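Give me the fold.
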Amino acid sequence: MSVYKRGEVWWYKFTINGQLIRESVKSNSKTVAKGAELARRRELEQAYNHIPKRERVPLFSNAADLWLAGKTGLAPKSTERYEQCVPHLKEEFGKRLVCDIDANDVAEYQRKRLAAGVSNRTVNYEVGALRGILRQFGLWGPIADRVRSLPERHDVGRAVSAGDEAKLIAAASASRSPALLPLLLTSLDTGMRSSEVQSLRRGDLRLTWEKGNIASGELIVPKSKTAAGTGRLIPFTRRVCACLSLWFSRFPDATPESFMFPFHQVGISGDERRWRSTTLT
């Protein structure tokens, strides 16, 4: 071990594998110089003997931020969902080292989130984010077989956001099918199932007309999947009334037995749209 002072700064020098190493410590402390020489010698000896450098295990909060920063190229909704998951995970595991999380901790996290009224699907999504965070340090594999996903219901629809609804309406308005927009608005504003809308007839509607337009209206559901759904009364919104006014003008000969949305064909020729109704009943 050899340290020496040059001016006000300490240096160290030693030989490893026949090569002289001489470097400045950039400190006026001899103690620091001795420690720096020892650390530098050990680093070079490990590299020479192909001993991998041991990585420091981070806190979960830091690991979560690192993982989230690497989630590039995902769809905006996926990124948003992960950003919603991470704060809950950091609240539970943030001050712990990532290597200290085991399968029992994951099960306890699932229990706490369910007790807080969170859905099974949301908890599974959060555990999926946890899996990604631990996997980047090779820590998920050892516990993967002992972590169980929660059962999910796949018969429940997803609520349509205001932004998605606006996109749907814009797309339906631009469609060459004249039936698409009234069908979409009726479904959105009444909350009816597709089978219920398809079975609607003119006689199921109670409409108030003023100057050739529907001023107000309501319908009675003729047939539903459940007994409670059959016969329920649903009022029309203003936009449904306006849209149906234009839609019904296409069928001047409709009777109470005519379907509200009859089978029809739309022929496309260039930018033209040729309408032909096959049957009203």
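Residues 213 and 245 are 5 Å apart (CA to CA).
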